[in-house]
Amino acid sequence: MNDITITNGLEVVYKRPKTLTDTPFHYCPGCGHSVVHRVLMEVVEELGIQEKTIGVAPVGCSVFAYNYMNIDMQEAAHGRASAAATGIKRVLPDRFVFSYQGDGDLAAIGTAETIHTVNRGENILMVFINNAIYGMTGGQMAPTSLSGQITSTSPYGRDTQKTGYPIKITELIAQLPGAFYVTRQSVHTAGAVRKLKKAFTAAFEYQKLNKGTSFVEVVSNCPAGWKMTPKESITWMEENMFPFYPLGDIKLPPKESPSKN
Fold first, then answer.
1. How much of the chain is in helix, strand and coil states, percent to nearest 5?
2. What superfamily does domain 27-251 belong to in CATH?
3. pLDDT band at 3; cut points 50, 70, 90
4. What pTM does this model have?
């Protein structure tokens, strides 16, 4: 009871972590990026690694992450965040390094960097936000867009005979020997947020072991790009995204058992 903070007669149950700045988020209402930012920075604060953490963000909706995360940040060219993170970690091996990328970035223009970073087993955390669309540039079809999904460049739905099938990039990289920890989570419910927080915590702890790459995918919604209200986008995600991109652990370190969703 002594740890409870009372402000103006009200019990404080949450406050902004010091690892987030006071800058208001620019993300669209209902977007998952804001929650992921908060959870990621909560973990950095709770682990006491703020002064030793370096994040890398490329082009995309998260390009302004350096405005919000109160840590050392580095910008990278489109798709090249994991390459930049690799250089930082090799020069400063005692730092906790992570990349933060969307699906149009990591699974399209950055596919080569993604595959080879993990194949080398670079000792970093890769955060992958998958909303199955290009959110910042106009809602175009992404490599992760679902079959039949309507986007600005597939107004009649994605035709797999013409544009190929959606890529499960997380399952692909999980097959590489350099991948140490691979999981897919979300932030659509309070319970999902708690599981993501555990995943981020584990990923940073694993980085201390220098055993390979930790890869955390976050299946997220894009109300603006999907042309839906935030509530509608959550329902659509549950009904369409999760069956194709099921949540849960995909690859765990030795002697660990899969978590239950």
1. 40, 20, 45
2. Thiamin diphosphate (ThDP)-binding fold, Pyr/PP domains (3.40.50.970)
3. low
4. 0.93
